[in-house]
Amino acid sequence: MDMQGVAAVTYRGASIENRHLAHIAVVDAGGRMLCAFGDPGRVTLARSAAKPAQAAAIVDTGALERYGFDEADLALMCASHSSETRHIERTRRMLAKLHADESALRCGGHPSLSDAVQREWIRHDFVPTPACSNCSGKHVGMLAGAMLLGDAADYHEAGHPMQQRVRRTVAALCELPHEQVQWGIDGCNLPTPAFALDRLARLYAKLADAADAAVAATDSTLARIYHAMTRHPELVAGEGRYCTELMRAYEGALVGKLGADGCYGIGVRASARTRELGADGALGIAVKIEDGRVDMLYMIVSEVLARLGIGSEAQRERLAAFHHPPLRNTRGVEVGHRSFPFELRPR
Amino acid sequence: MDMQGVAAVTYRGASIENRHLAHIAVVDAGGRMLCAFGDPGRVTLARSAAKPAQAAAIVDTGALERYGFDEADLALMCASHSSETRHIERTRRMLAKLHADESALRCGGHPSLSDAVQREWIRHDFVPTPACSNCSGKHVGMLAGAMLLGDAADYHEAGHPMQQRVRRTVAALCELPHEQVQWGIDGCNLPTPAFALDRLARLYAKLADAADAAVAATDSTLARIYHAMTRHPELVAGEGRYCTELMRAYEGALVGKLGADGCYGIGVRASARTRELGADGALGIAVKIEDGRVDMLYMIVSEVLARLGIGSEAQRERLAAFHHPPLRNTRGVEVGHRSFPFELRPR
User: Fold this and answer.
1) Would you call A15 and B189 a contact, using CB atoms and an 8 Å cutoff?
2) CA atoms of B46 and B251, how far apart (whole Å)
3) What are the chain A neighbours of B5 within 8 Å (beta carbons)?
4) Per-residue pLDDT tens for A30-62?
5) Could you tell me if A116 lies within 8 Å of chain B, comparing CB atoms?
6) How far is B297 from chain A (nearest CA, A)?
7) Cβ separation of B184 and A1 shorter than 8 Å?
8) Would you call B292 and A17 a contact, using CB atoms and an 8 Å cutoff?
9) Nearest by CB to B184, which of A15, A45, A185?
10) Residue A10 pLDDT > 80
11) ipTM
C-alpha cells in the first residue's frame, strides 16, 4: 500500500484501518525551512489558527487601550473557546466595555466544542447565542476595531475597513503579496485566509520571536499576543482541550493554536534545542491534515514535538492522552494502535 | 496539488479545505471487476459491513428455526442500529426467546449512533447497557448459535466454535482461502474480518444475486438475509440514517450496509441497467475511505450510485441530504462546496 504523504496510520490488530495524509513545515523566525514532510507549500485555510494575526489587526487599531481590554480579553480574542461559563461571561463583560450587547455580534451559536459543556446544554435545553460562539472574543475585538474605525455595522463583510486591515496585517505577517492570500468565509462568518503552510509556521515563529525580543516597538503587538495566549491558556480553548493543555505543559515556552478542519500552528521560543535544530531565533511549526480530522491532527502535532525534541519528556508526557489515546472497544479491550510513518527532512 | 486517489474534495470559497482518499470496487456476482477507482484490492476491515456474512453463519446453525426468530429479528442481526426504543425492545424480546438476559451479551454500551437518541439519553442521564449496543442483534444471534453449538459462554472469543463457523462462512462467501482473511477485534468485541475490497463488493453482489435467483437451496440463506434487510430497513440503521434511507429509496432493488471507520457495501439486483454496466447477474459495490470519515463516505457512495446510474433520479434525490449536504456556517451562509474528482475505470 502506498505510504507517500501518510503521516498517521491506525491499525486494528495487524490490519490497516485508516491512513491520514498530512503536511508539516518547520521554519525559523526568518522563514527559513528547517525540515518538512509532505507539501509544506500546501495552500491551507488557516481558519482559527489565523486568530493571532487577526488579533494583531485589532490591537493595531488601538482598541485595547481605547476600551480597556486587558490581557485576558486579548487571549479570548485569539481563542476557539469551549463556551464554558468563564468564556461566555468574559465575552459579555467585553461587550459591556463597548456599551454593546450580543445583538451586535455577527457570529452564530453552535454546539460547544467541549463535550462536557454540550451535555450540560442538552440537559438544560440551552440554545446557544452569538456570545456562546467559540469565536466570540474575536468578534468582540472586531466590533471594537470597527467602532474605532467609525463603522460598527457588519464588521464581518470582506469590504469593511476592519477586514481590509486584517487583510493587510495577514499578508504582512506572512510576508506575502496580497494576491497570494486567498480568502474564504469562516464558520463564524468572518473572512478567513488561505496561504502556504510554511507561512503559517513563519507567523507562529514570529509570535515566539517577538516574545524573545527585547521590547522593540515593531514587535510589541505580537509579543502582547504571545504573552496573552500563553498566560491564559484556559481562555484560548478550555478544560481538557489540546491548546490549553499544550500551553500549560510548556509553561510559556511555546504558543499553539488549532484551526478548524485540521491545521495547527506552534511558535517555540529560542532555546538550546531550537538552535540545535538550526533555527535562527524562534522556531515555527505548522501542520495540516488533509482529511480534517482533529483527533488525528493532535496525535501528529504531538509526534512532531517529540521528533523535534521540543521540551522535556515530562512536558510531552502531559499530552499523552492526545498523542497516544488508547484504541479501546466498548468492552474496554485494546484493539489497535497507531503509527506515524512520516519523516521530517531538510528541504 | 496531487489528486491521485482523491475521491472527494471540500472547498471553502475557491480554496481546497480537505481532500479524501478512497477506493471503489464494482463487480458482478461472479466476481468479475467491472470498474474501479484507487486500489480495489485494498485489504479492508469490513467491520459492520460484514454483518450479512456473520448473520449467514448464524442462520446456518438453524438458530432462527430453533428459537423462533422472525425476519425482522434477522434484520436486526445485520444491523448497526441507532438504539431507538424499537431496536432495544426487539433485542430484549430476542433474548427472551433464548430464555437469556443481557448479562449473557458480550458487547458493551456506547453513545447512540443517532444524535436524537443520544440527546434523549443525556437528558435522562441514561447509561446504555449491552442491549443498547448498535450490534445487539448480531450478539443475540451469535449467542443463539453458540447455545445450539452447546457452549453459550464467551461466544465472542476467536476460538469459540461459533466464531470458527463465522470464519469459514466469511472465507467461503468471499471465495478466499482462510489465510487471506485477517481478523481483528471489533468495537463490539466480536472478531472482525479484513480482506480485499473487491471481495466485499462480491459478497454484496451475491446477496442481491441470491434474491434474484429462483429459490435454490444453496442460496436461500443469502436470499433470506437480503429480504430481511431490505424489508426492514428501519431496523438495519434507524430514522434518518443512511442505510435506512438508501434501502427505503430503492424499495428492494438494492441492499446497503455501513462498516465503521468508513467502508460500505451495496448489492444491486439485476436489471437492464446492471446488464448495460456489463454485470452477469447482480452487481456489487464496495467503497473504503482511507480517513474513516463516514460523512464523506456517504457522499462518495451516493456519487458512485449516480455515476453508475443505479435507480431513478427521483430515488437518488431522496439521498440528497447525504450526497450534497450544504456547507453552511453558524450564520447559515453557504461557504463552500464539494467535488468528486474520481473516475470509475475498467480494470
Assistant:
1) no
2) 25
3) 2
4) 999 999 999 999 999 999 999 999 999 999 999
5) no
6) 12
7) no
8) yes
9) A15
10) yes
11) 0.96
| Residue A218 touches partner B, C-beta closer than 8 Å | no
The average confidence (pLDDT) of chain B is 96
Residue in A46, A80, A9 with CA at minimum distance from that of residue A264: A46
- Residue B43 sits at the chain A interface (C-beta within 8 Å): yes
Euclidean distance between the first and the last CA atom of chain B, given in angstroms as a whole number: 25
Q: A41: nearest CA in chain B? A: B1
- Asked if A103 has any chain B CB less than 8 Å from its own CB, the reply is no
Q: Do A205 and A28 form a contact (C-beta atoms < 8 A)? A: yes
Give me Rg for the CA atoms of chain A: 20
Q: What is the amino acid identity at position B305?
A: L
Q: Please answer yes or no on whether B186 and A335 come within 8 Å at the CB atom.
A: yes
Smallest CA–CA separation between A132 and chain B, in Å? 11
What is the Cα–Cα distance from B342 to A201, expressed in whole angstroms? Answer: 32
**How far, in Å, CA of A55 to CA of A188, rounded?**
15
Average pLDDT per block of 10 residues along chain B, 347 residues long:
87 98 97 97 98 98 98 98 98 98 97 98 98 98 97 96 98 96 98 98 97 71 97 98 98 98 98 98 98 98 98 97 97 98 95
DSSP-based three-state secondary structure for B46: coil
Q: What does the block give as the cell for A252?
A: 510559556
DSSP states of B161-222: HHHHHHHHHHHHHHT--GGG-EEEE-TTSSEEEEEEHHHHHHHHHHHHHHHHS---GGGHHH
Put simply, the answer to whether B192 touches A336 (Cβ < 8 Å) is no
User: What kind and span of H or E run contains A193?
Assistant: strand A191-196
Residues in chain A, overall count: 347
B220 touches chain A (CB under 8 A): no
Q: Is A123 on the interface with B (CB under 8 A)?
A: yes
Helix, strand or coil, per DSSP, at residue B283 = strand
Contact assessment for residue A123 and residue A168, using Cβ atoms and an 8 Å cutoff: no
Judge whether A82 and A238 are in contact, CB under 8 Å: yes
Joined together, the cell numbers standing for residue A248 give 500549560
Q: What torsion, rounded to 10 degrees, do the Cα atoms B1, B5, B7, B11 define?
A: -10
Alpha-helical runs (H) found in chain B: 51-59, 63-67, 71-77, 85-97, 115-123, 136-148, 161-174, 197-212, 220-231, 233-236, 242-250, 272-276, 294-308, 313-317, 320-323
Strand A15-28 to A182-185 pairing: unpaired
Give the C-alpha separation, A67 to B113, whole Å: 47
